[in-house]
Design goal:
Elements lengths: L1 H31 L6 H23 L4 H26 L9 H23 L14 E4 L8 E4 H23 L1 H11 L1 H6 L4 H27 L7 H13 L4 H21 L1 H4 L3 H16 L14
Antiparallel strand pairs: 1-2
Helix pairs in contact: 1-5, 1-6, 1-8, 1-9, 1-10, 2-3, 2-4, 2-8, 2-9, 3-8, 5-6, 5-8, 9-10, 9-12, 10-12
């Protein structure tokens, strides 16, 4: 039972991080109808910015305190991601309003390669480290209930807590603030929102900026766990099944879908892996996404699209 709980908790932690990346896809799609293939590149660019600024700031200012250096690096990287989001909307998306979905998709693919190249040019292509002081030592829980306790990684717990806090803040932002209600109105009907005076372009800028902050937090966490390297762009690919499972238009779906995928990957690798030769954790999420595409393409919480002819 203790081993099962270890696997379950590990899956929930990983799922929370998947949800964080999937949230960027959902936010942009809900507000602008654009499936943002550049989300992975945004995560990488944000992680590179924070890692390099955390390295440069002590040299520029003489600050020896790691906490202050990381905090300053996070703020500067956040400003950079705001600028990137604003430029993407201003220079690319604004000129593609009412274009076909394939056109917008190709535009985000172009943004992906541009951000990867720009990040390599500005910040370099080595593997960098983000050290935000999260403890990496494991801890044993429920020792009174199970012999030897349940082994949990402290870093995973803190990372999942950060991701959950950000998701909660975004939920409050969407539900309780005037801007959040405007975002939901735009998501429901672009033309109706414009007819009552909601500026569509400004809303798109806000959404892309929020997605940039989400990418920064995701990049910080994944960079701390795996190191900042160009393979971080594949994190977005791991989040695609989460979006399909939860629904492309549902914020709660991104969260629940991420938890299901995270737990499913860990449990299937442990309990089914020995029967199929291992490696099931790599393809489990995509097989599950394929099943949903066949039988429930809108996902668990997505809106069913009905075309009248």
């Amino acid at each position: 039972m203790a081993f099962f709980l270890e696997t379950l908790i590990g899956g929930l932690m990983a799922g929370m991080l998947y949800s964080l990346v999937a949230l960027g896809f959902v936010l942009i799609y809900k507000a602008s109808g654009v499936f943002n293939f550049a989300q992975g590149a945004m995560v990488l660019f944000a992680a590179l910015a924070m890692a390099r600024f955390a390295e440069w700031i002590p040299k520029w200012t003489g600050i020896d305190n790691m906490v202050l250096a990381n905090l300053a690096a996070f703020v500067i990287a956040g400003i950079v991601m705001f600028a990137v989001a604003w430029l993407i909307e201003r220079l690319v998306l604004r000129h593609l309003v009412n274009q076909e979905g394939a056109t917008l998709l190709m535009a985000t693919l172009g943004i992906t390669y541009f951000l990867e190249g720009l990040g390599q040019t500005i910040f370099g292509s080595d593997i960098y480290k983000i050290d935000v002081g999260m403890p990496k030592d494991p801890v044993f829980l429920f020792e009174s209930m199970f012999q030897g306790g349940v082994l949990v990684n402290k870093e995973d717990v803190i990372a999942a807590g950060i991701a959950a806090t950000l998701v909660l803040l975004l939920s409050i932002f969407f539900q309780k603030t005037k801007t959040g209600r405007a975002l939901r109105a735009v998501a429901d009907d672009h033309q109706a929102a414009q007819s009552i005076g909601i500026p569509l372009n400004r809303i798109w800028v806000i959404v892309w900026c929020v997605a940039g902050v989400v990418a920064l937090v995701a990049g910080m966490i994944w960079g701390s766990k795996l190191g900042v390297q160009f393979s971080l762009t594949t994190v977005a690919l791991r989040a695609l099944p989460v979006v399909i499972l939860g629904g492309l238009t549902s914020v709660p779906g991104a969260i629940i879908g991420g938890l299901i995928i995270g737990v499913g990957e860990k449990l299937s690798e442990v309990y089914l892996g020995p029967f199929v030769g291992g490696g099931i954790e790599i393809w489990f999420a995509y097989v599950l996404a394929l099943v949903f595409l066949l039988f429930r393409p809108q996902g668990l919480f997505g809106e069913k699209i009905i075309d009248r002819v």
